[in-house]
Amino acid sequence: EVQLVESGGGLVQPGRSLRLSCAASGFTFDDYAMHWVRQAPGKGLEWVSGISWNSGSIGYADSVKGRFTISRDNAKNSLYLQMNSLRAEDTALYYCAKSSVPSSSEPTFDYWGQGTLVTVSS
Amino acid sequence: SSELTQDPAVSVALGQTVRITCQGDSLRSYYASWYQQKPGQAPVLVIYGKNNRPSGIPDRFSGSSSGNTASLTITGAQAEDEADYYCNSRDSSGNHGVVFGGGTKLTVL
Hints:
heterodimer; A: 122 residues; mainly beta; 7-stranded mixed sheet; 4-stranded antiparallel sheet; 11 strands; B: 109 residues; 6-stranded mixed sheet
């Protein structure tokens, strides 16, 4: 059974940093691209970042480019999102999502975690 | 980045057919995927590619595409289909990214 478990969310002040993690199990992690998708309270889904199976291709939404860094550790079956210079508008539930293919530009996300909540507030 | 546009809300009578649409320039080149999200739950993939359903998704869900518009059709809508539906696709602007539509709230009457 595929499982994606996010962690690392919490309350953080504007301008500070936070690192999210996603622990994956139930599939061959290094065969697939992985993504972060967020959802602000009462709002729609927003793609944040994606990383290919071998970290060779990475993409970011314009809203987080230069502030967030995605990475993965295939030996640990883990995905990460380093979030710096956080803003109030980054407040959201952050989902880890598995791609159906190795490429990070393919938009089919076949499994999702339950999300970790990030609240940016003073 | 490119954009995908969805109607904010659609309603359908129980047992009838409903089509939810997604418009965007990227859809001229790439297929959309569709996700169902119920309150308090993570999204679930329901349609991907030309018209593919993951295992466990009922065959009343189908997908199609024409020009810059992708459509999700539910034939014989059930009460449990009431949910938010999102499309997504490759971002055609070349940033190796993905873009989501704003979502459609489906009400089953």
